[in-house]
Design a protein that fits this description.
Distance between the termini of chain A: 54 Å
Helix content of chain A: 25-40%
Radius of gyration of chain A: 29 Å
Radius of gyration of chain B: 18 Å
Shape of chain A: globular
Number of strands of chain A: 38
CATH class of the largest domain in chain B: Alpha Beta
CATH architecture of the largest domain in chain B: 3-Layer(aba) Sandwich
CATH architecture of the largest domain in chain A: 3-Layer(aba) Sandwich
Largest interface: A-B, 20 and 12 residues
CATH superfamily of the largest domain in chain B: Glutaredoxin
Largest sheet of chain A: 7 strands, mixed
Structural class of chain A: alpha/beta
Number of domains of chain B: 2
Strand order of the largest sheet of chain A: 15-14-29-28-27-16-17
Structural class of chain B: alpha+beta
Distance between the termini of chain B: 13 Å
Number of strands of chain B: 5
Number of helices of chain A: 29
Helix content of chain B: 40-55%
Order of helices and strands of chain B: HHHHEHHEEEEH
Number of domains of chain A: 5
Oligomer: heterodimer
């Protein structure tokens, strides 16, 4: 860790569990007490004694290669390395003696004899551990004459065979082998922290060299997570922004705005300019690790495509007209009020954003409920984890995952269902892989052979490669095995769950029609494999289930979530570390946006709008009466727009057109409205249908909080002024005031006070607490003032756990002669959702277009070769994209991502949705694939519309 | 053995498969491959990595660590001359220069006709008979350029 400019303490080796026995020793005359197994180096560091080191850092296990951290220990021969020597009771350690000083100087002399002496012009100047150690040990001269070295490009007029030029192939960091001291920190970070194993030391001795085993980093297995760059003590692996801009001079801890892992980062700044984002070791979600998106893909914040001036237009065919904030908000207010006057209060509504802060989301739903006077509020969670909310509330009593991420380190059997964490939740994936390498058993239930199924040092014990759309059948068959083979945790069920519901459920799943053998033909999962998987989950000590959108985005999404909850309850895998039901939530604040009352039927804290007591709390706080009837869900708003009864929509930070299913339907509904207000960073696809564009602010430009997938409330801190002048919460406040409200929030902390005062699970949350603790997991109440890492510990939130019968009902979306294949969609590591942000960064170097994965056999039948343009058609529509042949998908299944607007994969997806929550069935679409000559008509039209929709009138002179 | 890439990969898969389930299978697999192909073919690498479930980088680290693993085919015969201290003390350095010059080589490597590969080795454990060499796996002691020429003139083991 390059910590010397902006120090974050580095203890040299990882902490050992505090539960272990305590050892007492003396270091330089100080008495030190540390847990057994701690290194002498760490024990010294904890006592404030820093032992010189180069190859040690506390994110990695000790390695003992640099020989700089030598110490003397009474009664022991020689000078052992303090990093690899564990403490022992009564040990007497000296870290500074004449003998040690001489040895250390000798070691440094050797290092420097093969290292460039260009410190003043080096990118790591002032942030280099080698430089610091040379100073620390008092190196004053190097006695070795120049000779063979890795530093000079030429020696004696000829090319130096040992010299390797800089590898700048990665867009974000460079690798300069001439500065390498071969400490192996990068190799070990890639292995221990990230788990990709992309680096190695090639050769040995003087020829040894860090290598990605490929021509360069970009063509290697490297996933650009940045762990190696962070671990490098020199300028060998260095962020290009630091090379270009120099070192930061201040750091602000904030929270990444990409996925639901919610990593804590230090935004390292020069004034108001961001120099680099470095994962914060104190972050409890990520524990000092990052992925390519959070670490590097923040350039969109200063991208020239950012719209920084509000814009309006009378009709969506007109060009945009730049106006002041006042004009834009007055225009919006008058249009919304006019619509309400003509068509009723309920003719307008709004969508909160899972990309914005809790405070902003709270304000948007408050605007809609209290100022619009309607419950027509929904959120993008509708299209991802709404079934999680419904399913877990029904079974456990609360709409959230049960664990913290640390819990995975205690799991013995991990089931990953419908998720590809290495793509969607990479930092969690690294933590999971670490646990798997330590011996936990893995079961993957997924139609695709994802990286979790097999990658270096990871191998799923069971991969149930089911046909898309048969989750419920597979999960119920697992329950059948658990019940009929007597693997139920009867004690847990009797004590913690509703007896009648359990009895009904047990009878139901025990029916022979749910046996693995009976559903094998339907699901495509071999019965023996399914039985083995069910037994492994039920009989492992701690069984944990992690699932993603492959579970929820189905016509039976809610049923599948409840089937998962049933399995966890039946096996007693709830209520302690290492177990649980864990949704891997997609967006940075999708948990928070749901918590904050973004659904039409629920006030903040998941309380039904029909609940008079809950309503009264808000009516008192807000001073207005609230509607007791649920409002329209997003799909209903769109349907109502088409029949003319819904005419105005306020969309904060969601690209409806690209992200929602059945694009043509969405487009027609938007076009039918009188006032569509888009608040976003960029003119997104939806903005083509908007009348008002309000510039958004990035997470760097505002204060607030995000709530991640583990219910952790993390602070987002403003590091620069909003580029368009206002943070998103300020825009919402001014819109509310333009519509007659009288809001006067001066800081998001005041909004959090209002949330805490009105929402029981947040009662104890304050910015002071977050400042003190770093983060807190809700419920945070009087009885749990420090938050709740593991839920349902003594009893379920709803009292007794409720088993729910989960009958498998096949989706109406079926293959037939016209559409014989099944399409399923997903994400890729380097891009994020609709790509509005990541497409505007150098991440396009990894993924610059959506590709259709197709099995080689299916491709051959259709005459499709690698990278051919293919037509992908369903009952809803068609699009074209390029194909890639892959055995990751089974025959009859194709897969693509939806990151690029040019592809518009959602033109193809259908309007079928989850029975309980209307969550769209993105994951199953019957399609046909054939060779194509050019873009589909829809793609041509959409491109023309996007071009037309982005015209801006020059400002009046 | 010189095979097209897909045949090499197939054969590598068979060789790796023979060691399935064995702890520490990587080195035995690499030895078997080198015994069969004379080197570790590039096309075999993905198959080996897959079989023992390690990354391409880790495999490269292992292959490049051991000088005995070759990444390209060697000459038909192999001569290793000891360059370590004891042999140097007994004229090993001069012998090295003499042998290379006799073969028309500037530095160690394979003769242009592919007949012989000459490489340095650091101690064969034959210090008592220095300078030492190893020809096609057979150790030779008290080596001189003449004795080597004679040995090289003899038939190569098949």
């Amino acid at each position: 860790m390059k910590d010397f400019v902006l120090p974050e303490a580095d203890f040299g080796t990882p902490a050992r569990a505090a539960a272990a026995a305590t050892v007492t020793l003396s270091i330089d005359g100080q008495v030190v007490r540390v847990p057994e197994g701690t290194s002498v180096m760490r024990a010294a560091a904890e006592a404030g004694i820093s032992v010189p080191k180069l190859c040690a850092t506390d994110s990695l296990e000790a390695f003992g290669s640099c020989r700089l951290c030598l110490v003397e220990i009474e009664g022991r021969r020689g000078t052992p390395a303090s990093c690899t020597t564990p403490v022992a009771d009564g040990m007497v350690v000296r870290t500074e003696t004449d003998r040690l000083a001489k040895l250390r100087r000798g070691v440094m002399e050797l290092y420097i004899s093969d290292h460039p002496l260009d410190c003043l012009t080096c990118a790591a100047n002032g942030d280099c551990e080698l430089q610091d150690m040379a100073g620390r040990v008092g190196l004053r001269k190097v006695r070795y004459a120049p000779g063979a070295n890795h530093v000079d490009a030429e020696t004696q007029g000829a090319a130096n065979p040992l010299h390797v030029p800089v590898d700048a192939s990665n867009p974000y960091f460079s690798y300069d082998p001439s500065k390498c001291i071969l400490c192996s920190r990068c190799v070990r970070a890639c292995e221990e922290v990230q788990g990709t194993f992309a680096l190695t030391v090639a050769g040995r001795g003087f020829e040894g060299r860090i290598s990605a085993a490929a021509p360069d980093f970009m063509t290697s297995d490297c996933v650009s997570c940045g762990a190696c760059v962070q671990a490098c003590p020199t300028a060998t692996l260095q962020e290009k922004t630091v090379i270009e801009q120099g070192l930061p001079d201040r750091a602000v801890v904030t929270t990444c705005a990409y996925c639901g892992v919610g990593c804590s980062f230090r935004a390292e700044m020069q004034g108001e300019t961001l120099v680099r984002m470095v994962p914060w070791k104190g972050g409890k979600a990520n524990r000092g690790h990052s992925c390519v998106k959070g670490r590097f893909a923040w350039g969109y914040a200063s991208h020239p495509d950012r719209i920084l001036t509000p814009m309006v237009r009378a009709r969506i065919d007109d060009p945009w007209c730049e106006v002041s904030w006042e004009e834009a908000l007055a225009f919006t207010a008058s249009r919304f009020r006019a619509i309400q006057a003509a068509h009723g209060k309920g003719a307008i509504g709004g969508i909160t954003s899972s990309r914005c802060t809790n405070e902003e989301t709270f304000l948007v739903q408050k605007l809609i409920r209290a100022v619009f006077g309607t419950n027509n509020v929904d959120t993008c969670a509708r299209v991802c984890h709404a079934p999680t909310g419904y399913g877990l509330k029904t079974t456990f009593g609360t709409s959230a995952g049960t664990q913290d991420f640390d819990s995975v380190a205690a799991a013995d059997v991990v089931v990953v269902i419908g998720a590809s964490p290495t793509d969607g939740h990479p930092v969690f994936a690294s933590r999971l892989k670490k646990r798997l390498r330590a011996g936990a058993t893995l079961i993957v239930i997924d139609p695709r052979r994802t990286d979790m199924v097999k990658s270096p040092h990871i191998r799923a014990a069971h991969h149930l490669a089911l046909r898309p759309g048969t989750n419920v059948a597979v999960l119920t068959a697992m329950a059948h095995v658990i019940v009929t083979e007597g693997l139920v945790d009867a004690g847990f069920v009797a004590e913690r769950c509703e007896a009648d519901a359990y009895a009904d459920w047990a009878d139901f799943v025990a029916e022979p029609r749910h046996a693995p053998e009976a559903v094998e033909r339907l699901t495509g999962v071999p019965a023996a494999e399914l039985r083995a998987a069910a037994r492994a989950y039920a009989t492992g000590v701690n069984g944990a289930i992690y699932y993603g959108l492959g579970v929820t985005e189905h016509s039976q999404g809610s049923t599948a979530v409840m089937a998962i909850a049933n399995l966890a309850m039946a096996t007693g895998n709830i209520g302690r570390p290492g177990v649980g039901v864990n949704p891997l939530r997609g967006q940075n604040n999708v948990q928070g946006s749901c918590d904050m009352g973004s659904f039409p039927h629920e006030l903040p804290g998941y309380r039904h709008v029909g609940d008079a007591a809950a309503r009264a709390a808000f009516e008192t706080a807000w001073g207005v009466p609230l509607d007791a009837e649920p409002g329209l869900r997003l799909p209903n708003m769109l349907d109502a727009a088409l029949d003319g009864s819904f005419r105005g929509l306020y969309l904060q930070g969601q690209d409806l057109l690209q992200s929602d299913p059945d694009t043509r339907h969405v487009a027609a509904a938007l076009a039918a409205m009188d006032c569509v207000v888009v608040q976003d960073l960029f003119l997104n696809e939806t903005a083509s249908y908007a009348h008002v564009f309000l510039p958004g602010a990035t997470f760097l430009e505002k204060d607030g909080t995000f709530t991640n997938a583990e219910r952790r409330i993390n602070r987002v801190r403003r590091v620069m002024a909003p580029r368009a002048g206002l943070a998103d919460w300020q825009v919402t406040q001014r819109l509310a005031n333009a519509m007659g409200a009288d809001w006067a929030y001066e800081h998001p902390a005041q909004i959090m006070e209002e949330i805490a005062a009105t929402t029981p699970a947040f009662a104890g949350v304050t910015y002071d607490l977050l400042e003190r603790e770093g983060s807190v997991q809700w419920p945070c109440t009087d009885s749990a003032p420090g938050g709740t890492p593991v839920m349902h510990a003594g009893e379920f939130v709803r009292g007794k756990g409720r088993f729910v019968i989960t009958d498998y009902i096949p989706t109406e979306e079926r293959t037939g002669p016209r559409f014989p294949m099944l399409l399923t969609t997903g994400r890729i590591l380097s891009q994020y959702n609709v790509g509005a942000q990541t497409r505007r960064t150098a991440n396009v170097a990894w993924h610059d277009e959506d590709l259709l994965e197709i099995h080689p056999h299916d491709a051959e039948q259709r005459g499709i070769a690698e990278y051919d343009l293919v037509r992908l058609a369903s009952r809803s529509g068609e699009t074209t994209l390029r194909a890639t042949l892959s055995e990751r998908v089974a025959q009859g299944v194709v897969y693509t991502t939806f990151h690029h607007p040019g592809t518009q994969a959602n033109v193809v997806t259908t309007d079928l949705s989850d029975w309980a929550t209307n969550c769209p069935e993105y994951k199953v679409t019957a399609v046909q694939v054939s060779r194509a000559n050019g873009p589909s008509d829809w793609q041509d039209e959409a491109q023309a519309r996007a071009r037309a929709g982005r015209r801006v009138l020059p400002a009046a002179e | 053995m010189d095979l097209p890439d897909d045949a090499t990969a197939r054969r590598a898969r068979e060789i790796a498969g023979a060691h399935a389930g064995r702890d520490g299978a990587l080195l035995p697999i690499l030895h078997d491959l080198q015994a069969e192909f004379g080197h570790i073919p590039e096309a075999a690498r993905p198959e080996i990595a897959d079989a023992v479930n390690i990354s391409a980088a880790e495999l490269h680290g292992v292959i490049s660590f051991y000088t005995d693993f070759r990444t390209a085919p060697a000459g038909r015969r192999s001569l290793r001359l000891c360059r370590a201290e004891a042999c140097q003390a007994m004229g090993g350095a001069a012998l090295w220069r003499e042998v290379l010059a006799g073969l028309g080589l500037d530095e160690f490597g394979t003769t242009p006709d592919g007949r012989l590969t000459v490489e340095p080795v650091y101690c064969l454990g034959l210090c008592a008979c220095a300078p030492a060499a190893m020809l096609d796996g057979e150790p030779l002691g008290r080596v001189t350029a003449d004795r080597l020429s004679a040995a090289l003139a003899g038939a190569a083991p098949c």
